[in-house]
Amino acid sequence: MDQIRIVIADIHAMRAGGLRDQRSQRDKISMVVLITEIAGVVFLAVTSIIVMRQTQAAMAARSRARDAATSANRAKSAFLASMSHELRTPMTGIMGVRDLLLAGEQPPEDRQITRMLSQSAQTLLGLLNDILDLSKIEAGRLTLEEADFKLSTVLEDVASLFGLTASKKGIILKVDSSARAYDILRGYPKRLQQILSNLIGNAIKFTERGQITLQHREELLPSGMILLSCDVTDTGIGISDSAKGRLFKDFEQEDASTSRKFGGTGLGLSISKRLADSMGGSIGVESARGIGSRFYFSIPFAPGDENAVVARANANPLTAAESLRGLHLDILLAEDTPETQHVVTTMLSRWGHKVRAVDNGLEAVKTAGERKWDIILMDMQMPVMDGPQAVIAIRAGGGPSAKVPIIALTADAIRENHKEYLDAGSTIVATKQINWQTFAQ
Fold this sequence. Notes:
It is built from 14 helices and twelve strands. It has helices at 2-103, 108-138, 151-168, 189-205, 241-244, 256-262, 268-278, 306-315, 320-325, 338-350, 361-368, 387-397, 418-423, 436-440, and strands spanning 147-150, 172-175, 184-187, 211-220, 226-234, 282-288, 292-303, 330-334, 354-358, 375-379, 406-410, 428-431. Helix 2 (108-138) crosses helix 7 (268-278), helix 3 (151-168) packs parallel to helix 4 and helix 11 (361-368) packs parallel to helix 12. The chain is globular, with a radius of gyration of 37 Å.
């Protein structure tokens, strides 16, 4: 009996111990769960902090990158404006001296030399314009001037521009300049002509015999826009399949021998593609080596206003230069470059005008206050006082020349910068090098 009681007591003791062990086990599990939950909360908190810091760092990096990009674009724009001025200023002198020589009497041999000088200068100016255009595109500063225009007029101008060059090589240039149902368009005629000029210029360069044709067609789109498609086809040397993919890249030509034989920088097609893209169009090429090439592009234009085209034509008469020559004006010229001073003074004096030249804006303000001038020609980049400051001072001074027309002269080809000159009070902006026909208008 005693033994039985002892066994029962042992069983109860074992049960009590088991319960204690179970409670201890549950406590341990609860503790583990609690620790796990705390660890999860801590992990989430730490992760959130890390993600937040990484996000802030990324945002700060993007902000720094954006600021750096903005700063770089400002620097690029400033450099572009500076280079435009620095490169175009001596070109103004070169082209101006050419104009003076061609306008005067010369023996035939000397005139031939002058024409050779003119051709070289024009080639250099074209290269300069290509480089500036590419720089403006990369800086996001390319200007597209929208206007109403006649497509047939643009095509006629292109045919006239390249007709003599093609004829000298014995090449037939056929330009379909016929007016169609959608001849009056609204868009970017100067850039359209630039693309056509690049394609036809290349075709003439790489064609030794045969012909070059420019054809166009128009299609009315459901949106109401008019899709202009142009093809320039030649019988030239053609392009290899391996080179086609590189043609529309900057400074790319088929190979080094092409550059040595035919010249050029490889910028024309690159600029043409970027212009077509910027106008919502596309450009491409089909070619076979030894057979010829077909360059084609399509660009959408809006329907134009014929009355606007007529008004624009009447506002720019071809006889404007002769009209200016018939007047006898007292002109104040503010220009710090001696070569440009000499060219402008000589040309205007030959037209019967009286010109007084000064070297900087401060002298211009002083001279403008002495008497009334008929016109003031003001260079925009000058020492002592620049052009915009001088224009503001003349307008605000209330002197005898405060209300006379002021023509801003600038070698800065970036048209966005011209707004500053107009806001200062200039009547109109003329870009160097000076085209005397346009200048007279």
